[in-house]
Every structure is written in structure tokens, then in C-alpha cells.
């Protein structure tokens, strides 16, 4: 496995590989890798000759400096996991390498970013757009793999790829969960034992909310039910629970089209911000 820290070196190596006719699959991450990330590496390995994983805790997508400071950084262990998963290339630049100066360009994703994560993390998707487009230019992948755990991110990246004619395919991948249903996340390692024991309520609530909607309950009733549910567990601070169209992320009042409804939520648990969703 090759590890690059400098943009020019990564580019030079990848150019040679592309000239030799190899297809490139790309998995952008912020590190602190877990089995969810590795499942993206496995998908990429199936489809491409060469798999590149980037590890970069991108400062421009954190609206909360404390959150950025606390974000886990485990580069050595990440490289061991990637080596074991037979990833071919790791690109792990420093913030100075990626941003010698802060970019002046601003992304505006319109209604895709005024809801949910975009609403509660102002500037987040601008930072995502900047870093992912820079990484796409550096790696020049044929396919890029993104987890549906970050459903809104997938929608935003698809929009960006379409608007800017990036010559690549976005491959959305399913969310990997722990045995008790908790969505795997780098942030889970910051949960206390007590918080970890409560965390599966997020997925349990999403399943219950799905059943309500499938039984023709309205979105408003389902949202009220969710708020009630978390009142029983005051350790959670529910930030939002939205019932939305899977593609446009616009709120919907009732389930209409099968396979096109998403319930997305974010909650703080013991000071750790967790997000999850369910699509049905
Ligand atoms: P992150 O390191 O959190 O930025 O995530 C890097 C990529 O891994 C993103 O495309 C995420 O959506 C994806 N990812 C994170 N958690 C999971 C999971 N539990 N299952 C599948 N993909 C995931």
C-alpha cells in the first residue's frame, strides 16, 4: 500500500497508474476508520483496478471548533485497517497541504442545504463541496463511494457532480450497523458506556417511525411520536427528525412513493452528535 501526504506526489503516482489503463475507485474519509468505511473500500475493490482512500479531517466543514478539536485522529491504526482491506493508496494530506490559503469559492446548494444538516451546521456543505471537489481533481477517480449514512451529503455531492460535469460515477453504499442497530460512526468511540448502551434507541425509533408512516400516519403525527419517545430518555437531545423525499430532501406530509421516503435525524447523546436515517 502506498501512502502519500503531498498532493503532487499522489497526483504523479495516480497519473502513471491511469496511463497504464487502471481504473480508480475513491473513498474519501475523515479517518478513525471502522467497518462501515471498510465496506466502501470493499465495494471499490470489486469495481476498480486501484482503490484510493483519503484521510483528511476537513476543517472547512466543521462549524463548531470544539467538534473539530475532538474529532478522533488515528492515522496509524487506519493505515493498518486499510492495508488489511487491501486498499492500494492512502492519501493523508495535512490541512496546510490542502489549504495553503482558505478558498474564496463558495458553494450554494439551494434547498438541498437549507434543511437538516445544512440548517443545523451552517457552512458545512460548502466545506464538503470544496474538499470533495479538490479531492476529485487530485485523485481523478472513475468511481467515488459514499455512505448513505450521510444521506444529505450524497444528495449534495450528486448535485455538484452534475452541475460541474465531473467525469465520474457516484456509488451510494448502505449503512453498516452494530449488532444492536447503532449505525457505525467514528464518533461512537467518544460515547461513554452509559451513552453507548442508550444509543441504539436512535435506530429503534427510526424503525418505529417507519412503521407509523407505512400505516398511513401523517409526518406531523410521526414527528410528535418521536419527540414523545425521546422525552422518556432525557439523555438524548433531539436536534431534528425530518421526513423527506429521498431525492429532493423536501419535507413530505405522508408516504406516497414506495422506496422514496427518508426519515433523517440528528441527536446529541452525552455531548456527542449522532446522525442516522432510514430509507423505505
Ligand atoms: P466520514 O469519515 O465520517 O467522513 O465518512 C467517510 C465515508 O464513510 C462517508 O461516505 C460516510 O457516509 C461513510 N460511512 C460512515 N459511516 C458509515 C457506515 N456506518 N456505513 C457505511 N458507510 C459509512
List keywords for this structure.
280 residues; 2 domains; Rossmann fold; 3-stranded antiparallel β-sheet; binds adenosine monophosphate; Pantoate--beta-alanine Ligase, Chain: A,domain 2; 6-stranded parallel β-sheet; 9 strands; 11 helices; 40% helix; alpha/beta; globular
Describe what you observe in this structure.
The chain is an alpha/beta fold. The chain folds into 2 domains: 2-173, HUPs (Rossmann fold, 3-Layer(aba) Sandwich); 191-273, Pantoate--beta-alanine Ligase, Chain: A,domain 2 (2-Layer Sandwich). The protein has 11 helices and 9 strands. It has helices spanning 7-19, 35-47, 65-70, 75-84, 95-98, 116-120, 124-139, 151-163, 193-198, 201-214, 219-231, and strands at residues 2-4, 24-29, 50-55, 89-91, 143-147, 169-173, 236-245, 261-269, 272-279. The strands form 2 sheets. The protein has a 6-stranded parallel β-sheet with strand order 1-4-3-2-5-6, sandwiched between helices. The protein has a 3-stranded antiparallel β-sheet with strand order 7-8-9. Helix 7 crosses helix 8 and helix 10 (201-214) runs antiparallel to helix 11 (219-231). The structure holds adenosine monophosphate. Adenosine monophosphate binds at residues 29-30, 36-37, 39-40, 146-147, 149-150, 173, 175-176, 183-186.
Secondary-structure element pattern, one letter each = EHEHEHHEHHHEHEHHHEEE
Q: Unreliable stretches, pLDDT < 50, 5 or more residues?
A: none
Mean pLDDT equals 96
Structural class by secondary-structure content: alpha/beta
Here the CATH topology of the largest domain equals Rossmann fold
- Tell me the radius of gyration: 19 Å
Strand content: 15-25%
Largest sheet: 6 strands, parallel
